[in-house]
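HUMAN: Mind making up another protein with tokenized structure?

ASSISTANT:
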Amino acid sequence: MQVEFACNDAENFRYSFAHVARDGACLQDWESQYVYVSRLGEGSYGSVLLCRERSAGEEKGAHGQTTPSLVAVKKFKWAHNDNVGLRLALREIRLLKSLDHPLIIKLQRAFFSRNCRLYAVFPFIDVGCAQSVLSKTYPRGMPPVLLKSFAWQLCLALRYLHQRKILHRDVKPANVLLSSDGTIRLCDFGFARRVPGAELDALTPYVQTRPYRAPEVLLGHEYGAPADIWALGATLAEMARGEVLLRGTSSLDQLWRI
């Protein structure tokens, strides 16, 4: 079928689609593959939707099919009409495709819809993010036994990234998913970067939510893996206390509180 590209920059889209397709992505109809269930969350660069995969039998109207699995689908906000947004989204997808660890969210597939929207599909982790679980279930802090397991797993996930010269740069409870089997998944790699390398100059101080920023990041100095470790510590303290450890109102106030 001939596809008519609707992007502002059709040539740029063709190039980008070819680049992603090289890594196994495809061009597909959104509605033929997924049924929207609910919205899981939304960030600056994308929204995450809970969807149900359509089965082949469902498309044909057959009955008695097994229940399709639920997936989390990230819809990138700016990738369809902004070159910078597209470049950042493609960088995140390429990095995710290179990762293979049981405690890091697994990218199942990425695709462009026929109206040029870029999507990434992940397994649905049933309990939810640690921030939500903390506020709803453990408002005074996670029990020590669970916290110990949480901390150990998050340390393993970060060790895997740092051994591969990857900085996450946005470690916080909202970016750690909890599963009913007791395992975690570190997610949201929109700020993640490989270092050292050509992207070293991209390590800007505008990373992480303020309460999780290391002093060197707040001061605009060079930083590396220790910044992730600082965010890890702030995350564990929050999980233990049930509230943010240091909530500054500005970068200067955050430094004063530290």
Q: What stands out?
A: Confidence is low (pLDDT under 50) at residues 1-6. Residues 166 and 194 are 4 Å apart (CA to CA). The chain has nine helices and eleven strands.
